[in-house]
Amino acid sequence: MTSRARMLSCAAALLFGTSMSSSTAFAAIASDAGAIAAPAAANVDLPVMPDNRTVKQRSVIAGKTVNYDVTVGNLPIRDDHGKVIAQVVYTAYTMPGAGSKRPVTFAINGGPGGSSAYLNLGAIGPKRVRFGAQGDAPSDQPILTDNPDSWLDFTDIIFLDPVGTGFSRSLEDAAKTAKDFYGIEPDVKYLSRIVWDWLSTNQRLQSPKYIVGESYGGYRAPRIAYELQTQLGAGVNGLILVSPLLDPIATSGMSSQSPLPWIVDLPSLAASKLERDGNLTPERMASIETYARGAFATDLLAGRSDPGANARLVKNVTELTGLDPALVRSMDGRVDSATFLREFHRADRKLGSRYDSNVTSPDPFPAAARSNAGDPVLNALIAPLTSAIVDFMTRTVGWKFDGRYYALSWLVSDAWDRTGLEDKPVIALRQAMANDPRMGVMIAHGYTDLSCPYFGSKLIVDQMPEVGEAQRVRMAVYPGGHMFYNRAESSAAFREDARKLYAAQNR
Question: How far is residue 464's CA from residue 423's CA, in Å, rounded to a whole number?
């Protein structure tokens, strides 16, 4: 995988990853996942959006029964002349009568081109559908169960679907839609305004405010927080970034001379082998991280100036990854994640997932030199997730709408203007934290995520200055991959770490 393609596979990812060129990277993976392109919208007769709909529900969360309201609705986006040019659909879980002091959390997924269903029905919403785990299949029944690890008992949660995802839609033609919504800058502007509009419309401006962003949502979230602080006039109490890629330039590399891509990837490659062997522990990973940023980095930089450097790389990388020494030697100890996944499970005639390397599926072309199949996680989750969220919104909540739901839209990804895909989230995060020394930050990753490896975020956090209270940026790494929350123990630990953050910020 080239450095440029690697950058796109992470920074573009709710769950995307590819070895293709940058011009096709976004579209191809969403297509692999079975996503359907969003309509151009302006040149067709669109179904009328129904009025907001609220129903009462209950779930058992953390061992206690919680009663709450679910609202499915939409907020308009207007141009400078007041004309409605798009409609953003949201799903809100709120505690009736809790008052304005109760925290409210806005959750956004990534892609670009992904709806918020992944966080909603997989991570922090009060209902859950199984997806992203070993053994899942598209034909799995899309049945919702109570989510014991939901955050709803300590915060209201608003799940936002960006334009072109979920049921959210543009009312403009394709060219205007791309200009107004499908780019790094307009995306932050309109999503920040949607957060403000929901707060204002629902009289929640006095509530403590939090933003959760997964994957590319993690690229969005720090900039949304800064935009709210400095442009719209709403402070943010906390950010929770889930499997984010914060700095695509530094951690993915734009130069073949940069050692950072290999340094960032190595701990997750090693974690994959440790987990497969039943030896994954934080202590073992700490020693690997020390090697990655120390002797490994030194040998990478040495190149031909040190005749022993390459031999050491081959020896250590072979031991850490479990790959064939001849293969590692042929790659000079620089094993990319795509090659690793192709070879790591080849003896079993299986494919590993970029989003959780030990989640596998049978390889339909085991003799091929390169993988010729979609990702095991993506292929299995689109069907049950889409069916579950649409059934919940239209039948359980009763928000009757005959538009098409896009859990993952390749047209949004393909149309995305990636100009300026740089370290803007890190800059915004530093600025937002300096503006508000009380704002808390939590960054959460899975050990075996090869799409957005956790070590990239750890290196970034280690370079950030301390502003305000010590340990304001909390880094948490759990067993699992991009969606580590599909593992029961990791999900419970994630909830507990988040609960502590909210409690500390609201004391």
Answer: 13
Work out the end-to-end distance of the chain between its first and last CA atoms, rounded to an integer number of angstroms.
47
C-alpha R_g of the chain: 22
Percent of the chain at pLDDT > 70 equals 89
pTM of the model: 0.90
How many other C-beta atoms are found inside a 10 Å radius of the C-beta of residue 493? Answer: 18
Give residue 52's Cα distance to chain centre: 27
Q: Return the beta strands (E) in 254-325 as ranges.
A: none
- From CA 331, how far away is CA 268, in angstroms rounded? 18
Please list the alpha-helical segments (H only) found in 112-235: 117-119, 174-181, 184-201, 216-227
* pLDDT value, residue 43: 44
Comparing CA positions, the residue from 224, 265, 316, 214 lying closest to residue 458 is: 265
Other beta carbons less than 10 A from residue 205's beta carbon: 14
| Whether the Cβ atoms of residue 116 and residue 470 lie closer than 8 Å to each other | no
Q: What are phi and psi of 72, to 5 degrees?
A: -110, 125
Helix (H) or strand (E) holding 414: helix 410-415
**Residues 385, 130: Cα–Cα separation, whole Å:** 8
Instruction: Spell out the long-range contacts of 460-463 with Cβ–Cβ below 8 A and sequence spacing 24 or more.
Output: 460/246, 460/247, 460/250, 460/251, 460/426
Give which of 338, 310, 337 is closest to 325, Cα–Cα: 310
Tens digits of per-residue pLDDT, 193-221? Answer: 999 999 999 999 999 999 999 999 999 99
Cα diameter, the chain: 70
Nearest C-alpha neighbor of 459 from the set 255, 253, 299: 253
Nearest to 340 by CA among 279, 282, 413, 261: 261
Instruction: Give the residue carrying structure tokens 């690229």.
Output: 219
Distance CA 33, CA 258 (A): 31
At 253 the pLDDT is: 54
Looking from the CA of 432 toward its CB, the CA atoms found within 13 Å total 29
How far apart are the C-alpha atoms of 260 and 253, rounded to whole Å? Answer: 6
User: In the structure encoding, which two tokens stand for residue 505, read together?
Assistant: 């910020």
Q: Please name the residue that has the structure tokens 């692999």.
A: 32
**What's the number of CA atoms in the CB half-sphere (13 Å) around residue 139?**
0
Q: Which of 489, 507, 502 is nearest to 441 (CA)?
A: 502
For β-strands 238-242 and 145-146, DSSP reports them as unpaired
Exposure of 254 by Cβ count < 10 A (0-12 exposed, 13-18 middle, 19+ buried)? Answer: middle
Contact 170, 419 (CB under 8 A): no
Beta strands of 404-483 (E only): which ranges?
440-446, 473-478
